[in-house]
Design a protein that fits this description.
eight-stranded antiparallel beta barrel, globular, mainly beta, 115 residues, Lipocalin, 8 strands
Length: 115
């Protein structure tokens, strides 16, 4: 399996909206197995560590050699949150899809991040 170069995605990303109440920081790291993401949500104005999960990286075409996007899934027991993001012109655009396991309606959010 060919591994895409994830350098464009790696590092710490901060939400551009200082009042964001969803994901406020992302840390992407290279591992022997690929890439991990550690997301931080807002908890009363302080970052709350969601933990580290594997991220799947994507190129912009089937012949790409560099990753420009990723997805990752968090399972919190009572809900799951899918993160899907792409980098463009120095900004990371994060789409978050949250699904509750008890039947409540899910929701979507979008945030923008900078280094």
């Amino acid at each position: 399996m060919v591994m895409l170069e994830p350098a464009l995605l790696l590092g710490t990303w901060y939400a551009t909206d200082k009042e964001a109440d969803g994901v406020v920081r992302l840390e992407l790291s290279r591992t022997d197995d690929g890439v991990t993401v550690c997301a931080f949500g807002d908890a009363d104005g302080r970052p709350y560590d969601w933990g580290e999960v594997h991220a799947t990286v994507y190129g912009n075409s089937v012949t790409a050699t560099e990753a420009m996007a990723f997805s990752a899934l968090y399972d919190f027991g009572f809900l799951t949150t899918l993160l899907a993001a792409y980098a463009k012109q120095g900004i990371l655009v994060l789409d978050t899809f949250t699904t509750f396991k008890d039947g409540r309606p899910g929701y979507f959010s979008r945030e923008f991040f900078h280094r």
